[in-house]
Design brief:
4 domains, 8 helices, six-stranded antiparallel barrel, alpha+beta, single chain, about 25% helix, GMP Synthetase, Chain A, domain 3
């Protein structure tokens, strides 16, 4: 059977198990016993051997699942729980102030359903009654957890008929929800949390900030020289760049973890009081959105081939970028090619409002690239 050694679990493989069973049968019944694979005894050895080999493989899988490097799903959540971490769950997307029109004083009850052009369903959050002019505004949330983009001024289809309600129009682009934290992202956050107990260093501060609710990403720029650096960080200072999370909790964490005498740089300033009730200004930066646009020309593989243009736009708009990550034009081919039936003739990208070019988009260290579905143009030749 398998052995637990100082290098890990070493399972017994099927060929070794078969050899041991054959040797055992020969000791009992003699060396002249017929153990060919198609013989009755050979068949029994094969069945018993496969059962034992499956158990050995199960033991190996369980052993590997105890290692965070290999654990997935619930097993990874159990390992991360020892560090006080839980997986970030998915959240709903929201449509705010949707304009509803119909007959005056029509009451529409919460749970009423509309759908967007992508066939995603949205539920009315609260009861609403149309006014004397036959209109009202109300909030809707996505029926399912996750990211569901909808543009402003989008007509929504009423799925549940309500007498007197005839029209729904989005006022703003959807507030995009989050997908559940994936295993690779969760594992990365777990590994970074190992620095949590470090005192007064950048790694420890990053780990602590990553544990705050709703924090998506943290980057810290450090300048240990006596002159401002290329990122405009002053001498002997740090610049915390953080996406998501509560301002005060962030400031409090930075104050508690930064090294004494280290300067802080950033456009967001929050006052935190120390143990002597002295006000301290804690500065950090929020990354700004860098809106980008995409122009795409496609050629059909065959004449009259149907191409789902909207699916291409949705796939591109759902791409995510890290703080300061440039938009590499070659990366866009992956979401584009999720849809079939064409080949790409032209692909140009640029910051919104700038000339389109077939080259990468440089993103500032304090920006996050974003491609909205309305800024994607797809032409089929």
């Amino acid at each position: 059977m398998g052995q637990l050694t100082h290098t890990g679990y070493v399972p017994e493989r099927l060929n070794t198990i078969i050899e041991e069973l054959q040797s055992g049968f020969k000791r009992i019944y003699g060396n002249d016993i017929n153990l060919d694979p198609d013989s009755p005894d050979g068949q029994m050895i094969g069945l018993i051997g496969q059962i034992k080999a499956d158990l050995e493989e199960l033991a190996e899988v369980i052993y590997q699942a105890l290692d965070p490097d290999h654990a997935t799903g619930v097993w990874l959540e159990q390992r991360a729980a020892y560090a006080g971490l839980i997986r970030r769950r998915a959240s709903y997307s929201y449509l705010r102030n949707v304009v509803l029109t119909g007959d005056p004083f029509t009451k529409i009850y919460s749970g009423a359903v509309v759908s967007d052009p992508n066939k995603n369903r949205w539920l009315l959050v609260n009861d609403v009654t149309l006014n004397a002019q036959g209109s009202a505004v109300a909030d809707f949330r996505s029926e399912s957890l996750g990211s569901y983009p909808v543009s402003e001024k989008t007509e929504l289809k009423i799925e549940i008929v309500v007498l007197g309600w005839r029209y729904a129009l989005s006022s703003y682009a959807a507030e995009i929800g989050q997908e559940e934290e994936s295993d690779p992202v969760f594992r990365k956050r777990f590994f970074r949390s190992r620095a949590k107990q470090a005192k007064n260093n950048v790694d420890g501060l990053v780990a602590s900030l990553n544990q705050l609710p709703d924090v998506k990403e943290v980057m810290i720029l450090e300048n240990s020289t006596s002159e401002p650096d290329k990122n405009q960080v002053p001498a002997h200072s740090i610049n915390v760049i953080i996406d998501g999370g509560d301002d005060y909790l962030i400031a409090e964490t930075v104050f508690n973890r930064k090294t004494a005498g280290t300067g802080l740089f950033g456009q967001t300033s929050v006052v935190v009081r120390d143990t002597q009730n002295i006000a301290r200004d804690i500065c950090f930066d929020r990354p700004k959105w860098a809106s980008c646009q995409v122009y795409l020309e496609l050629c059909r593989n065959q004449d009259f081939t149907s191409i789902d243009i909207n699916a291409i736009k949705v796939a591109i708009s759902q791409m995510t970028f890290s703080i300061g990550q440039s938009v590499n034009i070659s990366r866009l081919y992956t979401p584009i090619n999720q849809t079939q039936g064409f080949w790409v003739e032209k692909l140009f990208i640029a910051r919104k409002g700038e000339p389109l070019k077939a080259q990468n988009i440089d993103i500032n260290i304090r920006e996050i690239a974003n491609i909205h579905i309305d800024d994607i143009e797809v032409i089929v030749r």
